[in-house]
Amino acid sequence: MAxxxxxxxxxxxxxxxxxxxxxxxPDLVRYCGASGDFNSIHWNERIAKAAGKPDVIAHGMLTMxxxxxxxxxxxxxxxxxxxxxxxxxxx
Length: 91
Hints:
This protein is 42% helix and 0% strand.
């Protein structure tokens, strides 16, 4: 599969970026399948860099879900979060 060759399998994408959420390459590819969005910037490092990105980028909805998990973990009860909203900024 091209996606498996284009990304470094099993490597944490956040190793060089303290504070970034960890997304392993296989997780990003699986999310492409779950979302139906196979845009190459999500799984092909060469294409992502050609598009001006520092590396492949996670889908916005995946990032949103990870942020929500941080909030619910902090709250201690997912039911304690009554509302959650995000806005897309940038390109």
